[in-house]
């Protein structure tokens, strides 16, 4: 059924159809039996997949990755689609429009997307206000970043503002320094600036009545030496874990003609092409940290087998994004049905 619907959806520009579909989902949810129908079609009914991590109880290990619901506009609706948790963002302190459109592209031959969204969002205060009004009790992650106009030497101030704005409304934080779509952002992954940033956030965190789990989202393009630095920094700053991985700037091995890929231009590649590298990064971190760093896996997860691969590599939880686009609203139900 979704195969036919997908053909229709894919005939429209990706960003436009995303907003149209999500508005449609909100309409369905608002109908008298809408929530019941969504839960019946897409909900996950088993308790056998519950996970407890950081003192949080996840009803299942399959979450929605950051980037899909940047502004926390659809939390209640997404909760009906079976997700064990939803990560909003990336949220910045001030609203910003992001990069010029078009900025989201499909590569159907590769079951992939390329995006250069540029942290388009309505700001941390707006996201916090919506989270305050939500009805569902689904676990929420807050993915935070810096505004494009903020120089790297002042980036810590942006992350601090996001932390304070969202603290009361999210269950965990993810520090995003790995998007390829904000100029110079990935430079913050270098050892010293990253250590200073994470240490500052952890000091703020420990000053709260109850500290929240703070995780770091990393790129799949890091070398093993850089991953060693990440492991050391995460352990030194006592971070709660790692989200592995973000999108890649690598374009090797694609089935889509090179001319078409080059015409799209810059952006982060997600979906099936990043699957293997994401698993390699997860396995490396798990092995070289002696399994002491909890990992949320994201990258190329379309099926239960894909999710199981990530869990076997050392992940505690998984997230979908591109797989959700290609597989449709029952993806969580199917993955959970197939997990061991």
TrEMBL record:
GO terms for molecular function: dihydroorotate dehydrogenase (quinone) activity. Binds 1 FMN per subunit. Its cofactor is FMN. Its main location: membrane. Residues 49-340 form the Dihydroorotate dehydrogenase catalytic domain. InterPro entries: Aldolase_TIM, DHO_dehydrogenase, Dihydroorotate_DH_1_2, Dihydroorotate_DH_2, Dihydroorotate_DH_cat, Dihydroorotate_DH_CS. Substrate binds at residues 70, 115-119, 176, 181, 246-247. PROSITE patterns: DHODEHASE_1, DHODEHASE_2. The active site is at 179 (nucleophile). It catalyses: (S)-dihydroorotate + a quinone = orotate + a quinol. FMN binds at residues 66-70, 90, 143, 176, 217, 245, 271, 300, 321-322. It is found in: Cell membrane; Membrane. It is a peripheral membrane protein. Pathway: Pyrimidine metabolism; UMP biosynthesis via de novo pathway; orotate from (S)-dihydroorotate (quinone route): step 1/1. SUPFAM superfamilies: FMN-linked oxidoreductases. Belongs to the dihydroorotate dehydrogenase family. Type 2 subfamily. PANTHER family: DIHYDROOROTATE DEHYDROGENASE (QUINONE), MITOCHONDRIAL, DIHYDROOROTATE DEHYDROGENASE (QUINONE), MITOCHONDRIAL-RELATED. Catalyzes the conversion of dihydroorotate to orotate with quinone as electron acceptor. NCBIfam families: PRK05286.1-2, PRK05286.2-1, PRK05286.2-5, pyrD_sub2. This is Dihydroorotate dehydrogenase (quinone). It comes from Chitinophaga defluvii.
């Amino acid at each position: 059924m979704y195969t036919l619907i997908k053909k229709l959806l894919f005939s429209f520009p990706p960003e436009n159809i995303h907003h149209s579909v999500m508005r449609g989902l909100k309409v369905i949810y608002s109908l008298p039996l809408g929530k019941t129908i969504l839960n019946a079609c897409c909900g996950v009914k088993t308790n056998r997949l519950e996970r407890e991590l950081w003192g949080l109880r996840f009803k299942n290990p399959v979450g929605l990755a950051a980037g899909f619901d940047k502004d926390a506009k659809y939390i209640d609706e997404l909760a009906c689609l079976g997700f064990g948790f939803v990560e909003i963002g990336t949220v910045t302190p001030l609203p910003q429009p992001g990069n010029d459109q078009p900025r989201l592209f499909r590569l159907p031959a590769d079951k992939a997307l390329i995006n250069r969204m540029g942290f388009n969002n309505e700001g941390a205060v707006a996201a916090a206000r919506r989270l305050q009004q939500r009805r569902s009790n689904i676990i929420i992650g807050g993915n935070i970043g810096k505004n494009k106009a903020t120089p790297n030497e002042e980036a810590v101030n942006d992350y601090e503002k996001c932390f304070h704005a969202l603290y009361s409304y999210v269950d965990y934080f993810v520090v995003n320094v790995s998007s390829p779509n904000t100029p110079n952002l990935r430079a913050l992954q270098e050892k010293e600036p990253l250590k200073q940033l994470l240490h500052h956030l952890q000091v703020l965190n420990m000053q709260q009545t109850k500290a929240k789990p703070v995780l770091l989202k990393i790129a799949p393009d890091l070398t093993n030496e850089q991953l060693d630095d990440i492991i050391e920094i995460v352990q030194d700053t006592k971070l709660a874990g790692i989200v592995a991985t973000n999108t890649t700037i690598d374009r090797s091995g694609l089935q889509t003609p090179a001319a078409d890929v080059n015409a799209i231009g810059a952006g982060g590649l997600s979906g099936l092409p990043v699957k293997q590298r994401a698993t390699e990064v997860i396995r490396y971190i798990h092995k070289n940290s002696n399994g002491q760093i909890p990992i949320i896996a994201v990258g190329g997860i379309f099926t239960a087998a894909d999710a199981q691969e990530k869990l076997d590599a050392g992940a505690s939880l998984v997230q979908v994004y591109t797989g959700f686009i290609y597989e449709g609203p029952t993806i969580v139900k199917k993955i959970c049905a197939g997990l061991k």
